[in-house]
Amino acid sequence: MKLLSVIVILVNFISTSLSTNCNFPPDLWCSSKEIAELCKVTEQCAANSWNVKLDGPLVNFTLYYESLCPYCREFIVDQLFPAYQAVGEIMNLTIVPYGNAQETLHGSLWAYTCQHGPNECVGNLIDSCAIYYMNQSFYMPYIYCMEKATATIDPITAAKKCGPPNSAPVGGILECAKTVFGNRLEHEMAVKTDALQPQHQYVPWVTLNGVHTEKIQDEASNHLIKLICETYQGSKKPEACKTFEKPNTNRCHK
């Protein structure tokens, strides 16, 4: 169904004048209203993708991660971003880039030591600045792109490659990562991470509606869309949730 929607939207897009501001691949066109407007597919997305009227509280899902951890990368690329695209309208998603780092106060600045070296600290700072300056509809595709790219290139090069148009300039985000303000943004991520109860033992570390268990972690790591769909209490769910609906086995027995 999702593939069909993308095809329908793509056909309509090609039949209209192309927007010079649309530098996103087709599978991201309906990931937010802002991107849809840039790509001139708002009507098509509304007709084919944005058709859920919420009748239940959002599912709170938080990821604690570090930018160069290969398992965090795997989770973001294979589970989190696909879930954000498929069922993001029923999620209250928070991501916290700090992970297993450590911080020490030197004067008015925090010094960070990261598990995968100095480049990881740079990546964490870039992500923190992106989260602060961008709407989620822009920073989620941005961080997804960053995670894919940093498998082979450094975070600064990845930031320049992945920067989305018409939001916060990449240069501004990179500059933020070098400033006292960016330093304090990352400290806020450290505070959030250190406040976890129970304390995180590894990354990626997730909480569902404020709760962490090994069962939640395992389900999120393998079937996050399913987990979000089954946790959401509303009766009207995104199209992606229909795959996980339990079959109707009601019967009037003798």
What string, H for helix and E for strand, traces the elements in order? HHHEHEEEHHHHHEH
Task: Return the CATH topology of the largest domain.
Answer: Glutaredoxin
Rounded mean pLDDT is 87
Q: Main sheet, how many strands, which sense, barrel?
A: 3 strands, mixed
How much helix, percentage-wise, in residues?
40-55%
Shape: globular
Number of helices: 10
Outline the low-pLDDT stretches. Answer: 1-18
- Report Rg: 20 Å
Q: What's the total count of β strands?
A: 5
CATH class (first level) name of the largest domain:
Alpha Beta
Ends apart, CA distance between termini:
39 Å
Total tally of structural domains:
2
Structural class: mainly alpha
* CATH architecture classification of the largest domain: 3-Layer(aba) Sandwich
The fraction of residues assigned to DSSP E strands is 5-15%
Strand order of the largest sheet: 2-1-5
Family: Belongs to the GILT family.
Main location: secreted
GO molecular function, one term: oxidoreductase activity, acting on a sulfur group of donors, disulfide as acceptor
InterPro entries: Interferon-induced_GILT, SAP_A
